[in-house]
Task: structure prediction
Amino acid sequence: MKIICNIYKFLFIYIIVIAGYILASEGYLFASESADSWRLTYDLIMRWVNFFIFIFLLIKFLKKPFTEFLTRSKKEVSDELNEVVTVKEGLDKEIQISYKTLQKSDLRFRKMRERIIEQGGLKKQEIIEKANAQAAFMINAAKQKIDGYLVDAADALQEELIDEAVACAQKELPKEITERDNEKLVEDFLKKAEK
Result:
């Protein structure tokens, strides 16, 4: 309602200023007294009367539609503004919920990351321990195989040496041993076998 009053005041002042400008530009305010001065005064008064009748008719017939238009526009703008405020509040709530969810997700992600790192460290330690145990087992197995190979190689070498010594002895002994030495060896062997 205050807006409507301000609009009427503005229109009234605007109309008076325009009327004053029209009258001043026509020279009616500064007209000199002459024989036709009554006609000029009459025209001036009639113009003012017509002007006030026009203003009265405008106010009489346009006041209600203009007021309704302004009231309706005000209500529409108010409704739109309330709707925008409601939507804004809803969006603000959604933003707050999203922000809280993001903070919770960030916290959960950090905990999950720490837990994964911890589990990874434990798994790493477990793998290292298993690898060390397996390496020790493999080293022991390799040592046993090597020892076995060494024993087999030593046995094979000893057998070869014995075979070579016997072969060598069989070649050389018949040349060196006499019949008498042979009998003595047989007797010594039999004595040892009896004991």
